[in-house]
């Protein structure tokens, strides 16, 4: 409707243009005075549109305003004067009460329109044509401490982001000025109808997310890394895409050093998922990140009790210890922590630790025992783990036995350690408790733009991999 109204405005202007010009010519002829210079039609229309745009307030629209976090949106500003410099700004207050923001500098076109999906950002926290730049380029607002990480804790509530448009090209002081227009949007990890179920049984703690619909569904056991705690946001998003997903907390936050859990704990969790009436028992996969990838690789190679149908490992390493427990893995890491070094910001670089540990062949997992499809996702600038080297070693080991068809490795130049679901802000370093009550700052690596591209591409490949191996058909596409 808005496009139609603009067309009518242009027609109206063209019709009005002919009358005053003719009257001016007639009057001048009758008075025998000097001729009045006629205004070219396009110049007249440009002036008229500029006047009309200045008289009407700018209109900002974001579509959709309510969506899953991995869905793209379209941002459009209309009713600006042609050639107007404006700044689009996004602002979010996290559950930790930290402010995150991003902004881009734009110039409206001849119609007085800015379209983020089509127009260049000439400056700000991102440049170029970046549809989701207002989200992935978010950073802590000025005055915040470093090593901030934006991650959702309560997935039952949305991420609220205010998107505003300001006159001129601004780089600071956004909250001290009044925007021309603002829109509040919601970004969800849980699609409508997803069920969240607390699991506390057989010594296992976690959260099960069941997709909407009659079911049963393929299942996913989801395990995060060495930071510990119950992390639900990726798991709930997997459920939003049609997988009954179990987020497993296998030790409390910051307690890896005392996590005396062995493979039987993870086998029990797998079987709890398998035995749920809404889960297809013979279609269950495993998803691991960092330390969770190490656990996942152990399950697909060493367990005689469970048989996952497929496995996804993000930023992982394939080391082991005799009589595997998470606590023993921690002890081995401490033993070799002399290889840890500092970057220019005094953030700890741990990427040399994995290769150092597996110099002793007894600490290297026998990946040749893998018998299910495995997807390995890694970034070339991972400063926490030598994930690319690990992936290449796994592929070569499987090739020796003619099993290379079971391994799919995707690697991303410019990407770091934290390859998560798309459009979330990049963290080059994160706070971490490695030893009891000793806080560290771990370098993750990666550059914001290529890392963001990697997250978007990897997530699409992960969903396609799971669809192929767990559904064998088109996966229900979740929408808000």
Beta-strand content bin: 25-35%
- Unreliable stretches (pLDDT < 50, length at least 5) are 1-36, 474-478
Q: What strand order characterises the main sheet? A: 10-11-13-12-14-15-18-19
Q: How does the major sheet shape up?
A: 8 strands, mixed
Radius of gyration: 28 Å
Mean pLDDT: 88
Helix percentage: 25-40%
- Would you report the number of β strands? 21
Instruction: Give the CA-CA distance, first to last residue.
Output: 24 Å
Number of helices: 10
Concise account of the structure shown:
This protein is an alpha/beta fold and 480 residues long. Helix content is 28%, strand content 26%. The strands form five sheets. The chain has an eight-stranded mixed β-sheet, sandwiched between helices. It has a six-stranded mixed β-sheet with strand order 2-9-8-4-5-7.
Task: Give a structural overview.
The chain is of the alpha/beta class. It has ten helices and 21 strands. It has helices spanning 2-31, 41-55, 133-136, 233-240, 263-274, 291-302, 326-335, 353-357, 387-400, 448-471; strands at residues 59-63, 66-68, 74-78, 85-93, 99-107, 114-115, 139-140, 159-167, 181-188, 195-201, 204-210, 217-223, 244-249, 279-289, 310-314, 341-342, 348-349, 374-379, 407-412, 429-435, 438-443. A hairpin with a 2-residue loop joins strand 10 and strand 11 (204-210). Helix 1 packs across helix 2 (41-55). The protein is globular.
């Amino acid at each position: 409707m808005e496009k139609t109204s603009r067309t009518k405005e242009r027609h109206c202007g063209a019709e009005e243009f002919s009358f005053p010009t003719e009257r001016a010519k007639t009057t001048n002829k009758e008075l025998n005075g000097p001729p009045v210079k006629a205004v070219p039609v396009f110049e007249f229309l440009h002036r008229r549109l500029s006047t009309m745009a200045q008289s009407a307030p700018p209109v900002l629209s974001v579509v959709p305003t309510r969506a899953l976090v991995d869905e793209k949106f379209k941002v459009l500003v209309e009713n600006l004067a042609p050639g107007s410099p404006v700044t689009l700004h996004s602002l979010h207050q996290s559950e930790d009460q930290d402010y995150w923001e991003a902004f881009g500098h734009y110039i409206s076109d001849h119609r007085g329109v800015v379209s983020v999906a089509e127009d260049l950002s000439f400056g700000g926290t991102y440049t170029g044509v970046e549809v989701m730049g207002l989200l992935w380029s978010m950073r802590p607002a000025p005055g915040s401490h470093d090593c901030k990480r934006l991650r959702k804790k309560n997935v039952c509530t949305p991420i609220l982001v205010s998107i505003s448009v300001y006159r001129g090209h601004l780089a600071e002081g956004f909250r001290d000025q009044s925007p021309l227009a603002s829109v509040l949007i919601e970004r969800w990890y849980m699609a409508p109808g997803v069920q969240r179920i607390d699991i506390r049984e057989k010594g296992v703690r976690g959260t099960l997310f069941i997709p909407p619909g009659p079911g049963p569904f393929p299942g996913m056991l989801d395990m995060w890394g060495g930071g510990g705690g119950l992390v639900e946001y990726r798991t709930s998003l997997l459920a939003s895409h049609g997988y009954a997903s179990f987020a497993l907390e296998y030790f409390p936050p910051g307690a890896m050093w005392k996590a005396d859990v062995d493979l039987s704990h993870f086998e029990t969790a797998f079987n709890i998922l398998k035995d749920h009436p809404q889960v297809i028992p013979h279609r269950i996969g495993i998803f691991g990140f960092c330390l969770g990838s190490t656990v996942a690789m152990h399950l697909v190679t060493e367990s005689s009790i469970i048989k996952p149908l497929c496995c996804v490992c993000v930023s992982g390493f394939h080391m082991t210890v005799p009589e595997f427990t998470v606590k023993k893995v921690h002890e081995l890491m401490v033993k070799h922590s002399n290889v840890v070094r500092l970057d220019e910001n005094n953030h700890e670089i741990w990427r040399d630790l994995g290769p150092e540990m597996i110099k002793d062949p007894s600490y290297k997992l026998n990946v040749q025992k893998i018998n299910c499809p495995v997807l390995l996702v890694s970034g070339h600038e991972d400063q926490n783990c030598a994930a690319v080297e690990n992936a290449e070693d796994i592929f070569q080991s499987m090739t020796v036995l003619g099993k290379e068809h079971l391994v799919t490795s995707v690697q991303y130049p410019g990407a770091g350690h934290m390859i998560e679901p798309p459009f979330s802000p990049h963290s080059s370093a994160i706070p971490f408790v490695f030893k009891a009550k000793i806080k560290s700052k771990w370098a993750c690596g990666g550059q914001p733009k290529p890392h963001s591209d990697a997250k978007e591409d990897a997530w699409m490949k992960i969903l396609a991999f799971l669809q192929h191996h767990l559904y064998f058909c088109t996966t229900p596409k979740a929408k808000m």
